[in-house]
Amino acid sequence: MPDDHDAITEAADALIAYGYKVEPVGDDFALWVVNGKGMNDSDLLALAIRLGLMDSSAPRLQ
Q1: 5-20: pLDDT as tens digits
Q2: Residues 6+ away with beta carbon under 8 Å from 38
Q3: How far apart are alpha carbons 19 and 56 in whole angstroms?
Q4: How far is CA 34 from CA 27, 45, 48, 57, in A?
Q5: DSSP string, 18-49
């Protein structure tokens, strides 16, 4: 499993804890539905960073 998968699932978990409804589409965790809006894994990660739920300077995100 790629290292970025951990960052994506961490972002999903952070968004869920923040109150968002987050669901993966398929088994590869590349597409997501967040509060009814479709997005890819990069968008999911960006949302968590914008909300301050994740640190964009973390080594696993570079």
Answers
A1: 689 999 999 999 999 9
A2: 25, 31, 32
A3: 21
A4: 16, 11, 11, 24
A5: HT--EEEESSSS-EEEETTEEEEHHHHHHHHH
